[in-house]
């Protein structure tokens, strides 16, 4: 086999083979990095999350829909008890008002049912109230961005007018994804802020409020679809970069192995081959350490994980919001369960990104 034939390996490489080949290398290097990584306390991460606007919103979302799911479970428990014994619901207030200790001894099961129904009712009322307040709180956190979005749209309109209102200008400025998303976000923000003003009793028109909620859901649906599409594209690009990095790493290892074998037979090589080998050995481009390579691979791996969390969050939002947009008849709690999944996914991503930021600052 000639020098050129030995240097070039044209066999096709599958992604699975590359991942299997460098699995130990990547994760052993990751363990080395973690052993020297700065320690970040969970309290520090929580502090940063709570102080950020996104952290407040995600935390409130998780808390709200956790309450909604628990409230649904409590409500179903109460309904089952009442279904078993209809008289419990009818007389529980009267029994609790005139409750005597001897009644608990004579009818322990009935009194226990009455207590569960009473406590369930109280919990449902308080949990529903707290859930409504958390929802309003999240509206308040999002409030106030519409003037800036209107200003951006106005600047684009002014630019369109300045360039002569030609078909090519309109197509260039408005018929693209960024402009469409700007209009959708403005529509969603205006509806969102008007809904908040209704909740704060600044204005009162129930029919218009219902229409606004529907419009808000539709615009949010479109925004979710755009975001989901972009994340899927970003995921493919990130995987491709990682795949290329693995190929590059494999080529480097093969080159190093070839260099070692050529060193053993260097005396029989031509001057040109000796010069090529000397340039290869002294090239800075081939002197990357395992730590640098594993660091870049770790960045790709972390980026892919974060994109998966985004896709999970957007998918949950899409399913939950679609039930509203299409007025689908779904089991109670469907919206709350998927919204909770969305909130947890977003909070997990925020936790990981905050931890990594703190680790970089502490280095």
TrEMBL record:
It is found in: Peroxisome membrane. GO terms for biological process: peroxisome fission; protein import into peroxisome matrix; regulation of peroxisome size. InterPro entries: PEX11. Transmembrane segments: none annotated. Keywords: Membrane, Peroxisome, Peroxisome biogenesis. GO terms for cellular component: peroxisomal membrane. This is Peroxisomal membrane protein PEX25.
